[in-house]
Amino acid sequence: MTLSNDLMELKEDKIREKYAFAEAMLQGFDHTPRIAKKSDAPVAQDRSPGLGARRRFRSTTPGLVTRSTARPEGVQLSNRILECDDDALTTPLQASVLRSLRRALAVAQVTSDQFADRTGLAELKRANLAGTLDASQKMRFQELLSATAMIALHVFANMTDFLLSGLSAETGETEVQCGDVEEILFDNDQLALHGVLWELDQEIAAAAIETDAQLIGLVTSFCEQLMEKVTLRAEGVSVLQAFSESRYRVEADNFEITGFTPSARAHSTTLAMAFKKPEEVVGNHIAKYQAMKLAKMLMAYDFDRKLNPFAELGGFIFTFMGDGKPGTGKTTLIQMMAGMVNDYCQVAGYPFRYQNLSTESIDSYQGKSAQNAKAFIRNVTDPNVIGFGTIDDIDQLAGKRGDRQSSAGQLEITAVLMESFAGANTVVRGNCTFGMFSNYPENVDDALRQRAGARFLVDGPQSREDYIDILHLLMGKNHSIPVGDHDLFEAQALKKAVAASYERHSRPQEDALTKVFDKVRAEIGDLDTIAKLGTYLKAIQQADERFTGRAIKNITDAVKVRAMDFELPDAWMEDPELFLFKDYETKKAMIADLAQPITVDMVIQEINRYADSEFRYADKSDEVAIENAVREMQRMEEAKRRYMEITRT
Fold first, then answer.
1. What whole-number distance in Å separates Cα of residue 294 and Cα of residue 433?
2. What is the rounded distance in angstroms from the CA atom of residue 627 to the CA atom of residue 638?
3. Torsional sign, CA 501, 502, 506, 512
4. Ranges for the ATPase AAA-type core domain (predicted)?
5. Eight-state DSSP code of residue 187
6. Global pTM value
C-alpha cells in the first residue's frame, strides 16, 4: 500500500523492540492506586478473640497526612486472564487477547516515543536525568510528559479495541459493561499504563468472567470508556497539536492512528432490509431527489485523506430531518437510500455500515442510554466505512427538555445527539450521514431539531397522477386492468417534478409566514440583495424567536447544496475507475467543475422551505396543546355533570 504524504508508518522492528517492555507489564508490576479503590480489598482478620487487628498507621508529618499509605499490590494481568475459566489450558482466544494487549502496549510506547522526538521531550528527559534541566523548562517538561500519558492511553485503548473487534466477529458480540474507569493518571506514559492495567485487572476480577466472549466484551467496554475519558481530557491541550495533526499507520495490522479518533475495524453490517428502487417511491419529489444525491455524495469520500470533497467545497448533508404524516413514505425513503448506498459500496468494494437507533436503546439504568447512543454514533461515524444512521420516530426516542413525561433515558439520548451533531468536537468528514424521521416533529426538542441541517418534507403522493402511479405500482402484475388515459410515472420524472416543487417555495406555504413575507416585500420591494434578504430573516425572527443563528447556518448550508444541484453521473458509480478510485484532488476538481453559481431565487426558496417547516412545527405544537387542553376541560365538565347527578340521587 502506498502511504499518503501525511501518513507516517510505525516501523515493525521498532514495535517488536517494545515487546519485552509490554510482556513485563502483562506478567507483573506493583502499583499503588491513587484515584480508584481496590474492589476486592481483604478484610483485616482478628488475631484472637477479643483482640482487634492493628489500626493503619496515620502519619503525623505535615504534608504526608493526605498521601495514600496503601501498600502496592502486584498486578499480574496475564495470569488474571488465564484464570477466567476452569480450563487448565490456555484457550486460543485468551492467547489472542494477551497478544492484542501486548501489541497495543508496544504500539502505544512507539507512538509516545515518536511524539517525544518530534516535540523535544526526549532531550528534556535526558537533561532531567542529568540534573541539568533549566527551571524555565520545567513547566513545558511536565506538560509534554502529561501529553505522552494521554497519547499512550488512547493509542493503547484504541488499538486493543481495534484488534479485539476482529475476535468479536468469531465469538459473537457479548456486551459486558465494566465499571467507571477511574485510575487514569497523567504523570507520564509508563505510570499511566500501569494505572489502567491495574484497573483492568480489578474489573476482570470483579466481573467473574466465565467465557471468552465475556472477556472480550469486558475489555472492549473498558477500552471504549477509557478512550472517551482521555479524549475529553485532551481537549484544548496545545502541546498535543503535533499528535492530533499527524496520522500513523501500522501496516501489519492495517491499523491507523488519527489523533484521538477511534479506529474501529472497518466491516460492513449485514442488512436484512427490503431495498426500494427510486422508481418505487411515488411523490416526495424533493426528499427523493436529495436522498439520491446524498447517496452519491457519500461515495465521493476519500479513504486515504479521510475527507469528502463535498464536505470541503460545501453542500454535504451531515444531518437531515424527514417529517410527514403517517403512511407518507418515510420508511420507503430509508429503504431507497440505504439500498442505493449499499449497491454503490458493493461495486466499489467499500465497507458500508447502516444502523438504526431504536427505542430498545432506552435503558432504565442511569447512563446506559447515553452509552447506547454513543455506540450508535461511533459505529456510523467510523472514518473507515461509509455510514448511514437513522433515528426513526425520534420524537419517541429523544426526550424534550422540560417535558415531565420524558424519561431520564430519553433525555440522555437527546444530550448525546445534540453534542454529536453540532458539538464542539463534531468533525464532518463526509463519510456518513444521519437521518431523523418523525410523524410529530413538533414534539422533538427545539435545539435538537435545529441541528438537522436539511429538511425533507415527506408528504407522500399529492397529485391525481401520483395516486394513479402508486395504485398501479402496488397492484402488482397479477391483473389485466387497463391503465386508461394516463402516462405511467410521467409525473415522477425527477427533474421536472423537483423544479416545480422548488418553484412552489418562491412564496411561503404557511399562512403565518406568508404574512411576514408579504409585509416585508410591501415595505422594501423585491428581495434581491443581501440586505433585503437579511431584513426578511430578521422579520421571521421577530415572528418566531426560535429562528436563531443556527437556522441561518442551516439555510446557507441548504443553499450550498443547491449550488451543488447536480447528480454525479451514474457511469461514475458503475465504473469505479472513472471517479471513485481517483485521488482526492482529482475528485475535488471533477466535482467543482459541475457546481453552479448561487442565485437570489435559490436563497429565497431555501429560506421559505426552512421557515415553513419551523412555522409548521410551531403551529402543530400549539394546536396539539390547545386540543389537549380543550379535551381535558370537556372531561372535567362531563365528570362534574355526572358527579352532580350522583349527589342529587
1. 8
2. 16
3. positive
4. 324-457
5. S
6. 0.63
